[in-house]
Amino acid sequence: MNQQERLAAAEQGLWKPLPLIRDARYRWLLIIAAVVYLLLAVISIDVNWARVAEGLSRGMNFIAAFASPDFTSRGGDILDGLIESLTMTLTSTVIGILLAIPVGIGAARNIAPLPVYLFCRSIIAISRTFQEVIIAILFVVMFGFGPLAGMITLAFATIGFMAKLLAEDIEDIDARQVEAIRATGARWLQLMNYAVQPQVMPRLIGLSMYRLDINFRESAVIGIVGAGGIGATLNTSLSRYEYETAAAILLIIIGIVMATEYISSHVRKWVQ
Amino acid sequence: MLTLTDLTKRYSTGDRALTQVSLHIPEGQVVALIGPSGAGKSTLIRCVNRLVEPTEGRITLSNTELTSLSSRQLRCARRRMGMIFQEYALIDRLTVMENVLSGYLGYTGFWRSFLRRYPQPVVSEAFRLLQRVGLEPFIDKRADELSGGQRQRVGIARALLQSPEILLVDEPTASLDPKTSRQIMRLIKELCAERRLAAIINIHDVALAQLFADRIIGLRAGEIVFDGLPDQLDAEILTRIYGEEDWNTAAEPEAEIESDLEAVDTRVQTDAAGLKRSVPAVGAV
Amino acid sequence: MPVRYPDHSTNLADARWKLHTTRKQILIWLAWLLGISLFLLCWKQISDNTMWVFVEDAPRQGADLISRMLPPEWSYAHLLWKPLWDTITIATLGTLLGIAMAFPCAFLAARNTTPHGLIRSAALMVIVSSRSINSLIWAMLLVTILGPGILAGIIAIALRSIGFVGKLLYEAIEEIHPTPVEAIAATGASRMQVMSYGVLPQVMPAFAGISIYRWDINIRESTVLGLVGAGGIGLQLNAAINTLAWDKVSIIFILIFATVLVSEYISAKVRKAFI
User: Fold this and answer.
1) Domain boundaries, given as residue ranges, for chain B
2) How many CB atoms lie within 10 A of CB C193?
3) Phi, psi angle pair for C24, to nearest 5°
4) B114 touches chain C (CB under 8 A)
5) Buried/exposed A39-48: b ≥16 CB within 10 Å, e otherwise
6) What CATH number is associated with residue A113?
7) Domain around A242
8) Which of B153, B179, C161, C274 could cross-link with B133 by S-S, CB 3.0 to 4.6 Å?
9) Is residue A40 part of a domain?
């Protein structure tokens, strides 16, 4: 329908909004493809309804357990796991960020030479592609069970996360300021210190706080594959069907995440 | 037709925006509301359709008492009052036609409006309104693709689709250049005459107010300090509305406004930039 | 000249140091001291719980691992298409389910659209709980309730997505322009109509962007859900690791890597199209 016809129709009171995709064939192709995909996907969910029915009562028990969480009967385990998670979080964030700074600088196209750039970008790609748990499996094999493997995992994941954002930040900085400092005859390190650092610092601190928060949440899962932390305690309590303890652990995790979020929002405000 | 009785608004901060404002507007009268920034012009307009809840007083629109309505009745009452905004307040990502049709929302159910299934007569009425304001070729354009004056005309068409009895107009020209401002004001004036609509136009530009309004009300610190015909507006009254000291510094535009309407008219057309310069001197008090 | 230059610079330095008062300087040093000792304390805690013999062995273990991973057993790949399909299904359906629940939640949680303060707190609580708990933990819970399988994975992904999408969306809702909303309310529109005409068009691009971004993240997350029995390629990964079949593990890694790269590419493309 061309413009004139649409206007004439609208004058008669016949009007419909233009569809998002103008080309009708393309539109229907997309709709049909989406429907077919969804149908196939739903069909491939293979549900054992008997098992679900049996499990529902267990689910009810679990939800009920949140009303009476049990912090005490495995209090020692929970405390150990928690301390391990928190120490892993802190050390991995610090180490990860320290290592992410050189990688991030190396991955910024505007200040790094090409071979360095490619090398740093591939570290970032690997670190970001694989879920923390997969990396944890490898590090557990290499370093043995325990928090060290977990810490290295989280530090590695932190490098990918922080270095990518840092590199993007550096690529976005104001080029005139860099040139101004370079024009004074500053050396490379001085250039970093005077021209780059002041521009990216506030955001870097904000991101560090955010990553601290993420690392704590991740530290609660990598325990499942033996990398220490509260995840191991949680896993054990679930496999023993001790729902009250599991509920207590989950509540603690939620509480700590809320607290870190609160603190980090304050720190970010204070930095800016 | 619209009667305000002892209308008072106190904000929760304790600021008194309006104090015991009473006025009556008969059918078909175009009223310009002038006064310095913060005098309560916007609050007054927003109290009428209760976008701002008045603290005390009564508002009566053709025998309907507005302040005591339930939220459902209020929606019915709001259909009878079209509102036009300073920043046009269009939905940027919707098309011109959708923006105009949104004026009909008060009359239709959620799903019909969500699916854009508007009755045939409503759509053709919307189209006629767009024709009237000269925008019918743009029905499928997104609102953010239009210029300021065009957007304001879409806003006017939206308000008119409500088939209102009164127009509440909040600073219609504040974001427009002088020429477009005049065109918009003239359009509003013409439409009010065609449809026998009353209007309250809250405006900073005293010259425009004098040109296009039947009656002028001056508001200062939440109280009515002047209510009369446009040609009664003189230096003494402007001083009463806008204040003494600052008024003295704006001696030149004051003289121009005092001069007869013809003179102002030609000046606006020949020296648009000059007028624009003189406006803040009047309004910035 | 060489005499004046250092003189000048010391003056400058003096002027600069005045920016920090002595008191503030001490506080900054104290904060550093505290931070470093906390870090060392944590480090000691970890080091006490570590068997350093294993760590010394790590390079050899790593080299050994890589040698066993290479060459990947390519013939195993054709058994992985179904698990990969399941992984994508988990991510896609989980995301759809998640955004369907996050959407109303965000409107209830945004300060300018919530019907009541108490409802707002409840919605925020849902969002925070969902965000705090990793999808793998949700999967662990759901597997004990629903039994192993894709369904547990889909719901786990959905539950985790509520918090992510909900938080970003309610922040977007709180940042909309208020005047168009006022204008729609002034026409006599009902509450729902104000939402659909005044608010929805303003947040739609943000909503689409957030959803597709979460889908991209969910592809990554769903690759590991199988480790706790919630379906997808993680099941094969778990089996391969348990049987120490590292040449199969490496082919799974390659597949995951490729899938995530493709999903990231699609997500970036679609997001660009919406802005």
Assistant:
1) 28-38+76-283
2) 23
3) -65, -40
4) yes
5) eebeeebeee
6) 1.10.3720.10
7) 64-271
8) B153
9) no
Contact indicator for B45, B23 with CB cutoff of 8 Å: no
Residue A198 lies in a domain: yes
At residue A14 the predicted structure's pLDDT band, cuts being 50, 70 and 90, is confident
Cβ pair B218, B247 in contact under 8 A? no
Q: Is the ipTM of this complex over 0.85?
A: no
C275/C273 Cα distance (integer angstroms): 6
pTM summary value: 0.82
pLDDT reading at A30 higher than 50: yes
The three-class DSSP label of residue C57 is coil
Q: What is the pLDDT of residues A119-142, one digit of tens each?
A: 999 989 888 888 888 888 888 888
Interface of B to A at Cβ within 8 Å reads: 95, 97-98, 116, 118-125, 127-128, 136-137, 139-140
pLDDT in tens, A66-124: 888 888 777 788 888 888 888 888 899 999 998 988 898 888 887 778 898 999 999 89
Contact flag B116-A17 (C-beta cutoff 8 Å)? yes
The closest CB to that of C196, out of B77, B106, B114, belongs to B114
User: In whole angstroms, what is the distance from residue B234 CA to residue B210 CA?
Assistant: 11
Q: Provide the domain count of chain A.
A: 1
For residue A58, being part of any structural domain is answered with no
pLDDT mean over C135-163: 89
Number of other residues whose CB lies within 10 A of the CB of residue B41? 26
- Residue found under tokens 């809702």: C173
Q: Which two tokens stand for residue A46?
A: 């293979």
Predicted confidence at residue C18, as pLDDT, reads 55
Q: What count of other Cβ atoms lies within 10 Å of the Cβ of residue A31?
A: 11
**A107 inside domain:** yes
Mean pLDDT computed over every residue of chain C? 85
pLDDT grade, residue B278 (50/70/90)?
very low
Residue of B nearest to A16 (CA): B116
- Torsion over CA of C220, C222, C224 and C227, rounded to 10 degrees? 180
The CATH code belonging to domain B28-38+76-283 is 3.40.50.300
Q: Is the pLDDT of residue C121 over 80?
A: yes
Nearest C-alpha in C relative to B76: C188
Q: Which helix (H) or strand (E) holds B241?
A: helix B235-242
